[in-house]
Amino acid sequence: MWLTQLLERNRQCFPDRLALVDEQRSVTWAEFDARTTELALGLAELGIERGDRVAVLSLDRIEVLESYFALARLGAVFVPLNHSLALPEVAGIIERVGAVAVLGESALLDRHTELPACVRIRVALDKPVFAALGSVAAPRALPGVPDTDPVAVLHTSATTGQAKGVTVDEGSFRAIGLGWLAVARPDDDIVMVNCCPLYHGSMVVSLTYLAAGATVVLMPGFTPQRALAAVERHRATHVWLVPQMLRFLLQAKASHRTDLSSLREILYGAAPMPLDVYADAVDRLGCGFRQVYGMTEVGGPFVTLGPDEHPAPGDVSARIPCGRVIPGMSARSLGKDGREAARGEVGEIVVRGPGLMQGYWNDPAATEEVTDDGWVRTGDLGFIDEEGRIHLVDRSKDLIIRAGQNVYPSEIERALMTHPAVRDAAVVGIPDEDYGEVPLAYVVAPEGTDARALLAHLGERLAPYKRPRNIEFIEQVPRNPAGKIIKKLLRAETG
């Protein structure tokens, strides 16, 4: 009952401290604890029982986390839904998990007039009926729920195909949270602006800092102006975002007139930090940086590089290392032969420990595909250096093999981003009769930018076999909400 214990501990230690803040209201730890108990009783009166799956469809707001914690008290399973998904995609997830109820914002629920037959309860989070849930419920004992019971089905970001439902228990949240906090050693006065959505594995970062008694500030979607205003208004000490969001923050005109002096740490993850963004942020913000490397299937953030370990911008030649694995979790780099790779040798990163998922929901074949003797395959190619730090190179599925030579798209993307005209870039492999596969680059740049000049720029930085066959200009690189490039859309463009 990790989530319940988290609430009880913080209610006891920090009753009057703010736990959650959004654009509508705020709640203290005492109020948060009382409300989730009340809400659990109300949901039980509606007929939700231990083991039931309940979908949550909403922008980030306090009621979302109240629902997660209340369902955990009941032993029910919360299933966060990406509110940007199309109607058939939402219905498909609900049907696959057999959700008996959907809790959501009324505007989103109104879009989904026809839900699968398994749904028998619909409640709008922003209507009086939700606020009244449990307020007149008769006191009753809530079940004792072991940490081995499923608590959530978190869906992957699906950059390569249909999203998979990752089943996690409270033991996973506890293992990741305690391991992370042992390394991060947070102060007890943290105010964290959460720029990342609460509907996938990135929410574990917020749960982890909540476990330490932090105040978490929620926003109904990221905009640079909204995030900057939240930092200034709440005197935030920490911000959790993806690198692309940081770029937007620095580019916003409001950033120059916003008081950001309260910031101590920028937490970033989901994608590599562009070196120009890092250098600009270090110069302008004057705070520490903490890298977050995680994966929903292994419980969320399991590797970190802290502020004291971050290199000076001028000392970074290629990419900032991800950092070391947190206590309680283990990571290796495996070569093609399945054996542990030597230090500095590129292989696939695999992970094991108590943070691992129970498996993909009702999909044993997919679970077996990513697990091997207690280890989960991340699909990330990387190496571990002599000091135990993990360095990522690329995704194994994105690797381009040109005439037998490995070409990493991320290396080409980084080289492109060093050109002053390039705003964003993505590289995919395309079939080639002579070489099997060659790189193709997609670039966002001002009108009139010369592709030949970009190829010449790459010629000074990359070996011939790594250079793209062509460069195509596009208006925007497709990315998911976590900031990861959706390369399947670019591959579809190439036919």
UniProtKB/TrEMBL annotation:
Gene Ontology MF annotations: acid-thiol ligase activity
Chain segments annotated as coiled-coil in the UniProt record: none
Protein name: Fatty-acyl-CoA synthase
Record domain AMP-dependent synthetase/ligase: where: 8-361
InterPro entries assigned to the protein according to its UniProt record, in alphabetical order: AMP-bd_C, AMP-bd_C_sf, AMP-dep_synth/lig_dom, ANL_N_sf, ATP-dep_AMP-bd_enzyme
Pfam family, one: AMP-binding
Signal peptide annotation: none
Start and end residues of each AMP-binding enzyme C-terminal domain: 411-484
